[in-house]
Amino acid sequence: MIKGVWELVKRDFVEHGLSYSQLMKKYEIKGRATIANHSKKEGWLELREKHKQGVQLEVIERDDKRKDEKAREKESLIEALEVLIDLKIGAEKKALLKTVDTQDLKLILSILKSVKTPLPELIRVFELLKGNPDARLALGFQDDEKTVEARHNRMDVLGLN
User: Exposed site from 98, 104, 114, 125, fewest CB < 10 Å?
Assistant: First the structure.
C-alpha cells in the first residue's frame, strides 16, 4: 500500500476514531494484523488518546469562553440600565417632577443582582423606569391610588403614554 494512503488510515484511526474493522472495509486492507503492526510501530493508540484529550480541552475552553461572553453581556446590560436610571433621574429633575422613588431604585438593584435570564427582568425594569405602575404590581408592590395617578400624570407629561 502507498505511504500516503497509510497516512489517511492513520488519520481516520487517530482523529475520527474508526476501528480496525472499519478501516479494513474503507481501505480494503486484508488482515487486521497489517493495521495493528502499523498502529503499534507508529504509536496510533497514544496519538488517539492525545487527540481525544486535545478535543476535550477545546470543548472546555469553548464552554468557558461562552460563559465569559454571557457574563460580559450581563455586565453590559447592567451598565446600560445604570445609564437609563441616570437619564430617568435627570429627566425628572429637568421637568421638575418628583425624582425616582428610592423604593424603585432598591427594587431595580435587587433585580439586577438576581437576574439569570435577563430579558424578562430587564423589560420589568424598563417598565419601572417608564413609571408604569402595573410593573410594580407585577413585582409585588402596590401603590395607593394617589401615587398611581401621579405616575400616570408624569407619564403623560413626558409623553410616555
Answer: 114
Q: What is the pLDDT of residues 51-100, one digit of tens each?
A: 998 888 888 888 889 988 888 888 887 888 777 777 777 766 665 555 45
* Rounded distance between C-alpha atoms, residue 118 and residue 133, angstroms: 21
Residues 6+ apart with CB under 8 A from 134: 127
CA atoms of 18 and 12, how far apart (whole Å): 6
Residue from 101, 83, 79 nearest 92 by CA: 101
Please, what's the b/e burial string for 60-89 (b: 16 or more CB within 10 A of its CB; e: otherwise)?
eeeeeeeeeeeeeeeeebbeebeebbeebe
